[in-house]
Amino acid sequence: MQTLPSPPVPPQSPGHQSPGHPAAPPVPPPAPRARAAPSPLGRLTVSAALLAVGLLAAVDLAGSEVPGTAYLALPLAIVGLGLVVGAWFGRARALIAVGAVLGVAVAVGVAIENADDDRPVTWQVTTVDQLERTYDVALGDTTLDLSALDLSGRDEAVDVHVSVGSLRVVLPARVDVRVSAQVDLGDSRVLGQRWSGIGQGRHSVTDTGVDGPGGGRLSIVATVGIGDLEVVR
Description:
Layout: H1 41-61, H2 70-86, H3 94-114, E1 121-124, E2 134-145, E3 155-170, E4 176-190, E5 193-198, E6 203-207, E7 217-232
Parallel strand pairs: 1-2, 2-3, 3-7, 4-7
Antiparallel strand pairs: 4-5, 4-6
């Protein structure tokens, strides 16, 4: 007897369901990610700062003596509070830029208010006994000359701050030095390294002098609000 060939099996469509094997339900596409609503914290903080300045002006006009820097310091404090709140609730990154501008403005205002004399200032230190721990100038061109200072076997630290102006520090040739330098707005030239701009942050520069390690150690924290900083040997 001749065996007849089996009839061809028709192809199954993707939606075909085999008997006894139900098709898996289709996977729904992922829902689009909803964009977070903008936080009102920034607007509320700026509004509060403007309201506070208005109230301060009313107090000033009423006869109370209000220093000019208070018009900057008060909103700066409110913006700072807004940033603290924003760290826990809401988002207010734009307040960082506002706070930076107000901070520089406050530094300038304080420097102008406290400056009795803007003539150049020079400190020439030749002995360790003459070396101060802190040097501070509100406004003007300043030089701290340590070139003749012998620091052999010593470990000293100095903090120099100029609010507005220029600061030049001249180091002994052989001392091992670590300089922590910051200029909020201006130019910096520290032992061959240079940077400039606004809000550049603090830079650390280490140098062992012409003779290599030895000859004493000196740590300098040099800060300029607005102006120029130069550290040389």
